[in-house]
Specification:
It is a multi-pass membrane protein. The protein is mainly α. Helix 3 packs across helix 8 and helix 14 packs antiparallel against helix 26. It has two domains: 238 residues, no CATH class; 294 residues, no CATH class. The N and C termini lie far apart (78 Å).
Length: 624
């Protein structure tokens, strides 16, 4: 009997251990596959099975997919916390003593607990109200509290993972450090508790900037800064936080982001990328600096699949940096050209930043996609010119004597399944057959089918890992958007956009000067803040101002994304530099030196895009 009880306890503890290690991952993979298949079936039903509607799928599929997506996002956020993979600005904290950095981590966690408490409390209140009023969803007619449970339950899981991290950190901290962390947390709340009616705008941005400097994840910095300001000003009810945490991401267009992320990860893991590299090599490999040119060309090809700068650098750099090193190229230059070319991933469509800008600015994602094509190609050309001149100067020759048209055609045929992806995405969107979200879902389905069953170089374990990576990457972005919805509410109430516009236009009303000031500002922002976070925070502030000057919102979206793409390769927060540094094992400072001419070339294209609107607006004008 005692043996059986011991065995049961052992089995139970083993189950808990597996749940602790794998719960979020399994939920993400299951959810991802579910809403990918659902949206794919929605498209198939519309055009292939028009004679037999699959259980009236077009009526309820979009709603169900959105709700599953919200659940997956909050569960994915818990995995991000568990892995400590949140987006934060560590330019200050990484130069601090390790012991004090741990104190700030404790402060960050304690502040986040307060935010979590408000979200859970508000979520329970919202659900109670929905149960009392018997609210149901519009399409499926299921109780509304079922999708809304994602907020309190998901935040509770995030609370639990944060608590685990705190316990692990405290074990490595001295008693004095723990007390210091608690004391700093209390001190941060004292001003709003002791002084009534502090200027709300000043308080909001002061706390936000302070939290960013302290290394608090950007998403939680937005939420905590707004919470602190709300406690002091009582401008919005606290229950609004949980409602915004749901409504801020309950959007079908936003679902394009996880699909594009997944498509890039899946296709970068399989044989599609190798075939694109081979095609690029056949096209330009015979020039001086052939491999550098191949890198740029391949990044442009892959940009039309992934929608992500760091993903492009990781996929292409893993193959090209070691090969360039083997053929005598400077390792620092190899890393720099991959990092710079990878930034094209957010300009040539599809592009996650364009999706975010379109949602936040309420502009057409399809028009933004097509507006990015010419600027993206121009950046690719300028990078190739600079890579060519640098290679010629250093004697880095091509890996073949001349172009072989037959070999090019053979490589193009071999890469045909990869080249079809942009046609599916862009053709589906601009042909009016699919929304950007549907086209993105189809690209994921296509990538899985090709990798698993055609090339067979993607195993089911690889698929699992790809979807986990996609889910956690997406969760960071989506939680950021949820918190930015709350932050944006305060910006609207306090008329921050109008205040900023009045200040800037007070300096000058000349469009040329104002756009130059905005470019300088955005280049600086790109140096210290992740691109998606910057778009979410700054679009509601800057877009109304430039609209007053007659700047087309689509053109401004391109200006903003190109600016922040340059931020991918500018320290201290140049994420492409970090990815390239990790692959090449070369310090950031060494990569930055050969990257400077590439950055200047990209700024030249930025100025062209800023002052020649036709570069970004000509293709969208053909859609009218």
């Amino acid at each position: 009997m005692i043996k059986e009880e011991a065995q049961q306890r052992k089995t139970f503890s083993g189950l808990l251990r597996v749940l602790d290690q794998r719960f979020e991952e399994v939920a993400i993979v299951a959810g991802f596959l579910f809403f990918t298949i659902l949206i794919t079936l929605q498209v198939i039903n519309r055009y292939v099975l028009t004679f037999a509607d699959i259980a009236n799928i077009n009526v309820w599929s979009e709603e169900l997919a959105r709700y599953v997506f919200i659940w997956v996002s909050y569960i994915g956020a818990a995995l991000v916390i568990k892995k400590r993979a949140n987006i934060n600005v560590d330019a200050v904290t990484r130069i601090l003593p390790v012991s004090f950095s741990k104190v700030l981590n404790l402060v960050s966690s304690l502040l986040t607990f307060v935010l979590f408490y408000i979200l859970i409390k508000g979520g329970i209140a919202t659900i109670t109200m929905q149960v009392t009023n018997h609210q149901v969803t519009p399409a499926m007619g299921i109780p509304m509290y079922i999708p809304y449970l994602a907020v309190p339950l998901g935040i509770s899981l995030m609370f639990f993972r944060t608590l685990q991290n705190i316990i692990a950190d405290i074990k490595e901290m001295s008693f004095q450090s723990i007390v210091l962390g608690i004391a700093i947390t209390i001190i941060l709340f004292l001003p709003i508790l002791l002084v009534d009616n502090i200027n709300a705008t000043l308080l909001l941005f002061a706390y936000f900037i302070l939290l960013i400097i302290m290394g608090v994840p950007i998403a939680f910095s937005l939420g905590i800064a707004t919470l602190v300001t709300t406690i002091n000003s009582q401008a919005i009810p606290l229950d609004y936080f949980s409602q915004a945490a749901f409504n801020g991401i309950d959007s079908f267009p936003i679902m394009a982001i996880p699909f594009f992320v997944a498509a890039g990860v899946i296709m970068g893991s399989g044989g599609l990328l190798r075939r694109l590299l081979n095609l690029g090599n056949e096209l330009v490999g015979f020039f001086p600096g052939g491999l550098a040119l191949v890198t740029v060309i391949t990044c442009m090809f892959f940009a039309a699949i992934s929608g992500s700068g760091p993903a492009t650098v990781a996929a292409v750099g893993t193959m090209m940096i070691p090969e360039m090193k083997r053929q005598g190229y400077s390792v620092a230059f190899s890393a720099a050209i991959v990092a710079a070319a990878g930034s094209i991933g957010v300009i040539i469509p599809p592009s996650n930043p364009f999706v975010i800008y379109g949602v936040v600015g309420q502009e057409s994602v399809g028009k933004l996609f097509i507006a990015g094509i010419i600027p993206g190609v121009l950046i690719g050309i300028i990078l190739m010119i600079l890579a060519y001149s640098t290679s010629k100067k250093n004697g880095w020759k091509g890996n073949k004597d001349r172009i072989d048209i037959i070999a090019v055609l053979r490589a193009a045929w071999d890469a045909k399944l990869a080249l079809v992806v942009p046609v599916i995405i862009l053709g589906g969107i601009y042909g009016g057959y699919m929304t950007p979200t549907e086209a993105a879902a189809i690209s994921v389905t296509y990538g899985l089918i090709i990798g698993l069953f055609v090339y067979r170089d993607l195993k089911f374990k690889d698929m699992y890992n790809c979807l986990v990576e996609s889910g956690s990457t997406t969760a960071v972005i989506i939680i950021l958007m949820a918190m930015a919805t709350i932050f944006g509410r305060f910006i609207t109430i306090e008329r921050v956009a109008e205040t900023v516009a009045a200040f800037v236009l007070g300096i000058s009303t000349n469009k040329v000067i104002v756009l130059l000031l905005i470019n300088i500002f955005l280049l600086f922002v790109g140096m210290v803040m992740e691109a998606l976070a910057a778009i979410i925070i700054l679009t509601p502030i800057l877009l109304p101002m430039v609209s007053q000057l007659g700047v087309d919102p689509i053109q401004f979206g391109v200006i903003m994304v190109v600016n922040l793409a340059i931020g991918f390769i500018t320290p201290p927060v140049g994420v492409n530099l970090f990815v390239a540094s990790g692959i090449s094992k070369v310090r950031i400072e060494e990569i930055t030196r050969p990257a400077i001419p590439l950055i200047l070339g990209m700024i030249f294209i930025l100025l062209l895009v800023t002052y020649i609107p036709e570069i970004s607006l000509w293709l969208p004008s053909l859609m009218r």
